[in-house]
Amino acid sequence: MYYEPGKTAHGLPFDPFKSCVVPRPIGWISTTSADGIDNLAPYSQFQNLGFNPPMVMFSANQTTRGTRKDSVVNAESTGQFVWNMATWAQREAVNKTSEEITSERDEFEYAGLAKLPSRLVRPPRVAGSPIQFECAYLQTVRLPGNGPMGTIDVVFGRVLAVHIDDAAITADGRIDIVKLRPLARMGYHDYTSVQEVFTLRPEGSAARAAGLEGSPEKVAAGLLQDNKGVR
Whole-angstrom Cα distance, residue 13 to residue 129? Predict the structure, then answer.
């Protein structure tokens, strides 16, 4: 099949676009308003951007009322947000926090979630989530779209601190992803969780291998090693 979004019909009973780029990690973003009200919401357009320094982004469409999401407003007004890993064990709470409720209500309380204090930022972390990033807001790129929900705010942040549950780390010092079962968004109303991992080891440059791991220290050592191998 072939179609041009916004110009020609795809002819399917369900729109295929979001099912074409899967799975997408979930940005379960906690923020605090300027008035001190905590907010929590999941975003399926979320990703890490770089590792030196570590940076992340989440993208938020507008609400069904055509207003900006609380997560965006709060991050901009306070300069802070927290990413919490969404896992299979908390899938119902993740779904609950996706609902549109008034900005005067606390989503942690609404979803029955306990809070953990952050160390460097004001927004709390989700208790039970095995990994969290405390982030400083960097900037927002606003992209105009169609209709009340089409416009998006892409929010960028720098990771200031990383929390990892010790129980999530294997004996050889890796994060046990299969044990944690992180959630990811598919298309339609579908989700998946990671239950299988396989390894493909890169060949050649030690620096490139370290970059794929995301280790600034190993990249520096790898560059020295690669340069020694140059004749």
Answer: 36
